[in-house]
Design brief:
By secondary structure, the chain is of the alpha/beta class. The protein has two domains: 64 residues, no CATH class; 79 residues, Ribosomal Protein L9, domain 2 (Roll). It has four helices and nine strands, in the order αβββββαβαβββα. Strands 1, 2, 3 and 4 form a four-stranded antiparallel beta sheet that branches. Strands 6-9-7 form a three-stranded mixed beta sheet. A two-stranded parallel sheet has the order 5-8.
Length: 173
């Protein structure tokens, strides 16, 4: 699991992006209450965040934002179908493999990790929990029996030229 890609870390990054110049929140600076329906008509959820006792901040505040729709989020990344091998018995096992494959940080805030996967199922719908900080909706995961042979995965083995992008880090400064 990529801890930098959890719902809480995405929320922290959004708060840092909206913070006053020179203010940078660390994960240890804030505690988050569960997200609830927003009182702001322009945003879907709101979350109360509170300064921890050891942080340089004090008090509580409310942030308003929209969560990511799981299906649309994967589709926007060019992933219309999520396929994983059959064999996992719990959502937690499957989510751990999704995290590894896609370098994500799904956790118990996002899905019921203890939920069972029916043996022999050819798919499962992962439904975001209402208290998920970053996600809403559902993600259909197809559970396949066999791995795809590489000879079928690469349609044309005669490759074109290789391409590697060069970025001049000094020119972008």
């Amino acid at each position: 699991m990529n801890a930098a890609k959890t719902g809480r870390s995405a929320l922290l990054a959004a708060l840092n992006a909206a913070a006053a110049e020179g203010v940078v929140f660390q994960a240890s600076d804030l505690d988050f209450a569960a997200p609830v329906a927003s009182t702001n008509p322009n945003r879907e959820v709101e979350v109360t965040y509170t300064a921890t006792p050891d942080s340089l901040f004090e008090g509580s505040a409310v942030a308003f934002y929209d969560r990511l729709d799981l299906t649309a989020w994967f589709a926007a990344a060019g992933i219309d179908t999520v396929e994983m091998l059959q064999g996992d018995t719990t959502v937690g096992d499957l989510v751990a493999k999704l995290n590894t494959r896609f370098d994500l940080g799904f956790n118990a805030d996002d899905f019921d990790l203890a939920a069972a996967i029916e043996v022999g199922s050819d798919s499962i719908v992962l439904e975001a929990l209402p208290g998920s900080f970053a996600f809403k909706g559902q993600l259909l995961v197809s559970l396949v029996v066999d791995k795809l042979p590489l000879t079928e995965a690469v349609v044309n083995p005669e490759l074109g030229g290789l391409q590697i992008e060069i970025v001049d880090s000094e020119a972008q400064a």
